[in-house]
């Protein structure tokens, strides 16, 4: 090793950003927009646990956006039959999903008394209304046009979801790859929810059993890794809800736990799970 070790600079003469936000004193603060970022956590109650709830929700919202980029990139690569690029994007997404699943730890210690003391300030607010989460559901193929009703008063969110609903899902593009390899796959519904289909299961069975299609096994397994992590997130959400509010109805108007259980019990990419019954 040659050369000397220097500590980082403590003065920054060259970074004269004219719209420097108040409090953004360093190039780092300006780049990361620290002042704006730290102004976004605004608890509405005196309960300290509300801060953790807001931070967790905001962190997850950002991770939803990051994940959407990876899943959209995987979809684009599949459309181009670029399996390596699709697998790389799914793998990046799986790391994001692991952080999303781990983020539930931030709320693991919240007691019912703590949740009850700020629940009234939520009013009707519920994560169910997250349009970023809904775009992820649409990417997976869990589609429902009726849910757009929530965004009637919010044109930007409505338009993004309307467009998302008319673009084939990640799973539809994966099935299109199988079809281009000669497998009989029915056209996936575009605006409706993908439901288990025997012909799709038969196509995956061929992938897993026909040596000529062995390269597509990697795709099936990568999709399964993604699907399993979606379910893990739902299961951790279910546990967090069970710990903090038991079987009470949700702020968003659902029956709470029973509704969340139904959602967690639905397999993502269902044929990739059922095909295992006879592999
Ligand atoms: C302990 C804290 C939490 C409780 C008690 C809770 C409760 C609930 C309940 C009861 C529902 C069903 C809809 C309703 O009636 O409101 C729901 C849905 C949902 N929540 Fe939470 N939640 C919590 C934390 C979070 C966090 C931090 C996020 C992150 C953004 C989140 C995102 C969602 C999403 C995306 C849905 C829709 C789920 C789906 O469609 O499968 N929740 N939540």
TrEMBL record:
<comment type="pathway">
    <text>Amino-acid degradation; L-tryptophan degradation via kynurenine pathway; L-kynurenine from L-tryptophan: step 1/2.</text>
</comment>
<dbReference type="GO" id="GO:0020037">
    <property type="term" value="F:heme binding"/>
</dbReference>
<feature type="region of interest" description="Disordered">
    <location>
        <begin position="1"/>
        <end position="25"/>
    </location>
</feature>
<keyword id="KW-0823">Tryptophan catabolism</keyword>
<dbReference type="InterPro" id="IPR004981">
    <property type="entry name" value="Trp_2_3_dOase"/>
</dbReference>
<feature type="binding site">
    <location>
        <position position="119"/>
    </location>
    <ligand>
        <name>substrate</name>
    </ligand>
</feature>
<dbReference type="GO" id="GO:0046872">
    <property type="term" value="F:metal ion binding"/>
</dbReference>
<keyword id="KW-0560">Oxidoreductase</keyword>
<keyword id="KW-0223">Dioxygenase</keyword>
<protein>
    <recommendedName>
        <fullName>Tryptophan 2,3-dioxygenase</fullName>
        <ecNumber>1.13.11.11</ecNumber>
    </recommendedName>
</protein>
<comment type="function">
    <text>Heme-dependent dioxygenase that catalyzes the oxidative cleavage of the L-tryptophan (L-Trp) pyrrole ring and converts L-tryptophan to N-formyl-L-kynurenine. Catalyzes the oxidative cleavage of the indole moiety.</text>
</comment>
<feature type="binding site">
    <location>
        <position position="251"/>
    </location>
    <ligand>
        <name>substrate</name>
    </ligand>
</feature>
<comment type="similarity">
    <text>Belongs to the tryptophan 2,3-dioxygenase family.</text>
</comment>
<comment type="subunit">
    <text>Homotetramer.</text>
</comment>
<keyword id="KW-0408">Iron</keyword>
<dbReference type="InterPro" id="IPR037217">
    <property type="entry name" value="Trp/Indoleamine_2_3_dOase-like"/>
</dbReference>
<keyword id="KW-0349">Heme</keyword>
<keyword id="KW-0479">Metal-binding</keyword>
<dbReference type="Pfam" id="PF03301">
    <property type="entry name" value="Trp_dioxygenase"/>
</dbReference>
<dbReference type="GO" id="GO:0019441">
    <property type="term" value="P:L-tryptophan catabolic process to kynurenine"/>
</dbReference>
<feature type="compositionally biased region" description="Basic residues">
    <location>
        <begin position="1"/>
        <end position="10"/>
    </location>
</feature>
<dbReference type="GO" id="GO:0019442">
    <property type="term" value="P:L-tryptophan catabolic process to acetyl-CoA"/>
</dbReference>
<feature type="binding site" description="axial binding residue">
    <location>
        <position position="237"/>
    </location>
    <ligand>
        <name>heme</name>
    </ligand>
</feature>
<dbReference type="GO" id="GO:0004833">
    <property type="term" value="F:L-tryptophan 2,3-dioxygenase activity"/>
</dbReference>
């Amino acid at each position: 090793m040659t050369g000397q070790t220097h500590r980082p600079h403590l003065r920054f003469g060259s970074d004269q950003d004219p719209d420097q936000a108040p409090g953004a004193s360093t190039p780092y603060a300006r780049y990361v927009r620290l002042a704006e970022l730290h102004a976004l956590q605004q608890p509405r109650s005196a309960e300290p646990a509300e801060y953790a709830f807001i931070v967790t929700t905001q962190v997850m919202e950002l991770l939803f956006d990051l994940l959407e980029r990876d899943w959209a990139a995987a979809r684009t690569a599949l459309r181009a039959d670029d399996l390596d690029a699709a697998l790389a994007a799914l793998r990046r997404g799986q790391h994001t999903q692991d952080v999303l699943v781990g983020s539930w730890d931030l709320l693991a210690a919240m007691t019912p008394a703590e949740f009850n003391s700020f629940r009234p300030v939520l009013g009707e607010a519920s994560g169910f209304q997250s349009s970023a989460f809904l775009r992820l559901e649409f990417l997976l193929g869990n589609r429902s046009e009726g849910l757009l009703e929530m965004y009637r008063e919010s044109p930007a969110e409505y338009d993004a979801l309307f467009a998302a609903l008319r673009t084939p899902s990640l799973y539809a593009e994966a099935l299109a790859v199988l079809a281009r390899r000669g497998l009989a796959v029915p056209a996936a519904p575009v605006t409706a929810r993908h439901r288990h289909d025997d012909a799709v299961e038969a196509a995956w069975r061929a992938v897993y059993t026909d040596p000529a299609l062995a390269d597509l096994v990697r795709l099936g397994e990568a999709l399964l890794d993604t699907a399993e992590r979606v379910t893990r997130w739902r299961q951790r959400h279910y546990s967090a809800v069970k710990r903090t509010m038991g079987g009470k109805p949700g702020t968003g108007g659902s029956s709470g736990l029973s509704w969340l259980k139904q959602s967690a019990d639905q397999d993502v990419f269902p044929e990739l799970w059922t095909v295992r019954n006879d592999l």
